[in-house]
Each structure stands twice: as structure tokens, then as C-alpha cells.
């Protein structure tokens, strides 16, 4: 639900000197930004152009520059030049580690040559990319320490989803990226600040919660109206405090189709509440409901000793799990809890009322007149 035009970058520009380094274009005036990879309905491999920009202007880099190093150098430059009398917010979204897998510079590949010998080429590239990302993060943290800013920095490292099928293992969680099982939607996160104690949290948190949470952490009293996120800062600071979030819409596709006639007959009562032919997932407390579930296999590590949890053999049009008792989503319990199914379907139905159908419209804007770079052409 979008009820406010302001997003994370707009809010933090009000209170901080903001920089963002990301694969998502956010061309708003007033930001100092290094951006790349314009995302459109076109497949990324269909494009052969440049969209790397700084402050809205195209920039060129040396041939064979590696993105993780390039972004880290720019972030470090910003940190060193920053006026410490003013706050700083930096949103840094590396494209690594992501397809297409490309081999990182030689300094990152040498250790794997001696340690592993000949391995699968794609996995070899993946390992070098991970090492390059580790080094980039090490350099950014090092720059913050050198500048005397580390003790006052709230540092958040997270991901947007689980690993992709056949490219990663989310073991022992079930599922992969693009699906709604826990392996596809959980993102491991590290939060560091000098005032925080160490513990491992399994509290429920949604990506939209980061905006109010960080605003609370920096004691910003900017009034947040009609946002989807909730402030989780107290729950992060104190292990004993419960999360203020008890419900989470995981996903709900606006474009749907009716299920097969046999499914409609079997789930006649459920269909009166919500079209279960719509790919969706929702969670309330420990109960999680999925409709049209996909990407639900377990991708185990390669060790031959792995025997459990066992791979899924089948899926149902509608599934319910209790994540407290069954974190690996092995035991489907919708028939045992019809009242929970009804409640969760009603939540999906309410969200569906405000949903907007997707329209993939390609604007016929070329880039040849700009010598190749992809630039924003609409306000």
C-alpha cells in the first residue's frame, strides 16, 4: 500500500547529508548518488549500454573496473571528505553477489586456486565475488574507524531475499528466491552499534520497518504518516522486548487467475473469501499461509551425510504452517486450523482491495542520442 510519496531517501535527506550507492535508480534532485543498472521489464542481458551516473550525470570508469571495488572507493572518498559536524546517511547496495557471475580480480581468486584446485567455474567465480565484497566492506568499516566515526555509526548489513534455486543453498530452510517459503524470504542481517550488546534474534521484521526503525535510532522526530513499517528499535536494542509487529504481508500479486475447477470445488469456502489462484503469502504471529506456493524444494549442501530435512514431494493450492513448531515448513496443517486459514485469507482479501494491477509499459526512449548512457527522461 503506497499512501505517502516520501521514501527512505527523502526522509533521510531531511535530517542527514545523504548518499546512496545502489543498483536501483532513485533520480531525485538534491542527492549525491552513484547509481547503476536501470531495472526495466527488459531482460538485463538484452541491454548493451552504460547507466553509471554520479549526481545525475554519466560517468566513465576504467575498462575492467570491478563494481565492488568501485563502490567501496567512492564510499570511502565520501567518508574522508565528510564534515563530521553534520550527520551522514549512506545507502550502499552492492550488485555483488549476484548473477551474472564474473571473476573478481586476481588477488581474490588466488586463495581458491591453492585451497580448492579445480572446481566448478561458476562456483569459482562466486567465491571470488564474495571475497571482493568482504574486502569492500572491510575497507568501508576501516574508513569509518580512521575518520573516528565508527563508534557513533549505526551499521546495518542485510539482504533482500534468500539464495536462488540451483545457485545457492538456504539450508535448512525450505525454498529459494522468487518463492514465499522461509528460505526465499528470510534475509540474514547484522546490526552493529557501540551501544548494542550481542545476541541472535529471530523476531519478526519486515523490510519496510527499516525506515521508522532507523529514524527512531537517530532520534529523529520527523512525523511519519501512513507508512507500512513499524519502529523496531527498542526490540533490536533489548533482547527481552518483543517485536511490535505481529502481522506481515509477505507478497500479493495483483494479477491473478482462477484456479482449476477441481481446486475451486475443493476450496469452495476459501474461494468465497479470497481467490486462492492468486500467488500470495501472509503471516500472523507464528502462523503462515501460502497460496499457489512455488520454489519449495530443499537445496541441501553437497555433503553426502545430509539426510534431513527431507525434500518436499508435493504442494497444495493452499498451505498453512506453524513456524514456531515447524521452521522448515515440513508439516502442512491447514485442515487442522480452519479458523486460522479463514483469518489469514481475510487479511489477504483486505490487502487485495487496495492492490493495483501491474502494467509493464515500455517507454520508447532510446539512448543513442546520449552516446550510450541510459538517463532519466521523465520527471
UniProtKB/TrEMBL annotation:
Gene3D superfamilies: 3.30.1120.10, Alkaline Phosphatase, subunit A
Keyword set, alphabetical order: Calcium, Glycoprotein, Metal-binding
InterPro entries: Alkaline_phosphatase_core_sf (IPR017850), ARSB (IPR047115), Sulfatase_N (IPR000917)
Keyword Calcium: yes
Domain Sulfatase N-terminal: residue ranges: 46-217
Pfam families assigned: Sulfatase, Sulfatase_C
Keyword Glycoprotein carried by entry: yes
Cofactors demanded by this protein: Ca(2+)
Gene Ontology molecular functions: metal ion binding; sulfuric ester hydrolase activity
Family note: Belongs to the sulfatase family.
Protein name stated in the entry: Arylsulfatase I-like
Organism of derivation: Phallusia mammillata
Amino acid at each position: 500500500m503506497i499512501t505517502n510519496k516520501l521514501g527512505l531517501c527523502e526522509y533521510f535527506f531531511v535530517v542527514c547529508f545523504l548518499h546512496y550507492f545502489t543498483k536501483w535508480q532513485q533520480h531525485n534532485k538534491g542527492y549525491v548518488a552513484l547509481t547503476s543498472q536501470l531495472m526495466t521489464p527488459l531482460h538485463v542481458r538484452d541491454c548493451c549500454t552504460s547507466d553509471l551516473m554520479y549526481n545525475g550525470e554519466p560517468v566513465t570508469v576504467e575498462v575492467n573496473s570491478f563494481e565492488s571495488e568501485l563502490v567501496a572507493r567512492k564510499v570511502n572518498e565520501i567518508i574522508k571528505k565528510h564534515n563530521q559536524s553534520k550527520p551522514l546517511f549512506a545507502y550502499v547496495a552492492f550488485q555483488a553477489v549476484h548473477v551474472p557471475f564474473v571473476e573478481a580480480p586476481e588477488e581474490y581468486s588466488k586463495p581458491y586456486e591453492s585451497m580448492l584446485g579445480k572446481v566448478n567455474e561458476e562456483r569459482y567465480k562466486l567465491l571470488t565475488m564474495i571475497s571482493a565484497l568482504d574486502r569492500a566492506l572491510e575497507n568501508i568499516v576501516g574508513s569509518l574507524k580512521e575518520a573516528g566515526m565508527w563508534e557513533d555509526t549505526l551499521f546495518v548489513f542485510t539482504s533482500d531475499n534468500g539464495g536462488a534455486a540451483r545457485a545457492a543453498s538456504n539450508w535448512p530452510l525450505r525454498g529459494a528466491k522468487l518463492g514465499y517459503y522461509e528460505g526465499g524470504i528470510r534475509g540474514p542481517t547484522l546490526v552493529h552499534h557501540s551501544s548494542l550488546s550481542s545476541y541472535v534474534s529471530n523476531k519478526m521484521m519486515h523490510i519496510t520497518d527499516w525506515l521508522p526503525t532507523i529514524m527512531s535510532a537517530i532520534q529523529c522526530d520527523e512525523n511519519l504518516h501512513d507508512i507500512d513499517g513499524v519502529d523496531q528499535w527498542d526490540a533490536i536494542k533489548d533482547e527481552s522486548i518483543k517485536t511490535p509487529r505481529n502481522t506481515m504481508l509477505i507478497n500479493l500479486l495483483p494479477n491473478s487467475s482462477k484456479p482449476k475447477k477441481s481446486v475451486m470445488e475443493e476450496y469452495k469456502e476459501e474461494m468465497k473469501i479470497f481467490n486462492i489462484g492468486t500467488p500470495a503469502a501472509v503471516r500472523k504471529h507464528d502462523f503462515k499461509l501460502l497460496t499457489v506456493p512455488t520454489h519449495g524444494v530443499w537445496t541441501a549442501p553437497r555433503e553426502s551425510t545430509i539426510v534431513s530435512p527431507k525434500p518436499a514431494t508435493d504442494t497444495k493450492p493452499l498451505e498453512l504452517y506453524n513456524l514456531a513448531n515447524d521452521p522448515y515448513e515440513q508439516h502442512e496443517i491447514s485442515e487442522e486450523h480452519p479458523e486460522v486459514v479463514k483469518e489469514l485469507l481475510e487479511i489477504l482479501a483486505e490487502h487485495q482491495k487496495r492492490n493495483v494491477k501491474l502494467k509493464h509499459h515500455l517507454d520508447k526512449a532510446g539512448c543513442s542520442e546520449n552516446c550510450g548512457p541510459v538517463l532519466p527522461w521523465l520527471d
